[in-house]
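To the structural biology subgroup,

Please find below the input and predicted structure for Late embryogenesis abundant protein LEA-2 subgroup domain-containing protein, which we are adding to the shared reference set this quarter. The sequence is reproduced verbatim from the submission form. If anyone notices a discrepancy with their own records, reply to this email rather than editing the shared folder directly, so we keep one authoritative version.
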Amino acid sequence: PAFDLTLRVDNGQIAKTCRENVTIAVFYGNMLLGWGRVPDFCVGRWTSVEMDAAASHADVVLTDDVRSRMHSELLAGTLELDVETRMWFPDGHDLTWERPHCNTRDFCCSRQQLE
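Predicted structure (tokenized):
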């Protein structure tokens, strides 16, 4: 499977923020369908930015049952996929302004649902 995604980043901080080495993964339930890298980006204070990112992987093989279920859900308008973003932070990075899901010193993960 291959996915072309548009990601939106909102910066609610009083300072410009930049991120490097961000990755994304697309899931159907707990099944990993693809992954990719997000281009490095900066977002000005109190602004938003949208960027394109692709997620895929040639080694992912869907069983006929999963493919059929996904197809049925797509036709019914009920297919839900999760997109997980992952960010790593260097030692000493202040996580004060990060989202609540950034609960470790090195790693931050956010999972959003696509409908």
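Summary notes: The helical segments are 64-76. The domain at 2-114 is CATH 2.60.40 (Immunoglobulin-like).

Regards,
Lab coordination
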